[in-house]
């Protein structure tokens, strides 16, 4: 039985080719994808292509595009066995993260991929990324999808989407999940680490929850900064603070006073680490106790991309019971270590 995969092209380098008259990159007609990559016809799946009418640079991707992708998957969920999203690399981790929260009770693969070089380049990484992503998007065993979550496939590695970060703009191996193992690797054989795959613990039906609030602010703490700017924040509902190490900040009376002022005005404060690996541990050092005093929320080992999109999704979302803090600390779809 041939599996059916819907390929959604949003934009990005993977869909570019060089205009040899001008030397600049331009989007090619994705209706000709099978001519560009004839090897796609050799894969044991039927591929339908849905290109955005106007390709979107990944730096322009945001709530409007996230909602469109999520709802397009929702509208086509029963008609396809898997979904492949071609996306620019710079914000792919944000899109993968937010889709993992929007696509509730997912039982089918949603794979995002892109490339560092255009598809028409002689040394392009686009073909391998696209072809192997199609394999993963159509991978079933005993009539059940092997992958039932949102992932990123890039440079021979399958990664949990809401755990990824882009760490290189130079190398083909551009993505990592420092706080979670690789889900699969492609070599001579297509490998999947089934023990690491996410599985929903309920039998609830798939649904799209595209709620997004943009009343979220991200701020990186640095040595020597003053906190006067915080007093000028106009009642932002969620402030994500990226702090030192396992959760420390300069311990001064003014720090406590300023952060407490934000809490008193109703701002939720989420604390995440600047470290690529590891996470927040309140109480490990005395300079983290300030966050316990003000009732801040620990992000544990969540990535910045996932923390931001999770906060945007949960804030004022009527589909969740309980308050923001209670829901943020929950492991919704594998984004934090329990």
UniProtKB/TrEMBL annotation:
Family matches, as CDD domains: L-asparaginase_I (cd08963)
Keyword set includes Hydrolase: yes
Residue span(s) of domain L-asparaginase N-terminal: 4-194
Alphabetized InterPro entries for the sequence: Asp/glu_Ase-like_sf (IPR036152), Asparaginase/glutaminase-like (IPR006034), Asparaginase/glutaminase_AS1 (IPR020827), Asparaginase/glutaminase_AS2 (IPR027475), Asparaginase_C (IPR040919), L-asparaginase_C (IPR027473), L-asparaginase_I (IPR041725), L-asparaginase_N (IPR027474)
Enzyme class: hydrolase
Active site residues of this protein: 13, 89
SUPFAM superfamilies to which the protein is assigned, alphabetical: Glutaminase/Asparaginase (SSF53774)
EC number, UniProt record: 3.5.1.1
GO biological process: amino acid metabolic process
Keywords for the protein's UniProt record, in alphabetical order: Hydrolase
Residues binding substrate: 58, 89-90
MF-aspect GO terms: asparaginase activity
Domain of life where this protein originates: Bacteria
Occurrences of domain Asparaginase/glutaminase C-terminal (ranges): 217-318
Similarity remark: Belongs to the asparaginase 1 family.
The protein, known as: L-asparaginase 1
Organism from which the protein derives: Chryseobacterium salivictor
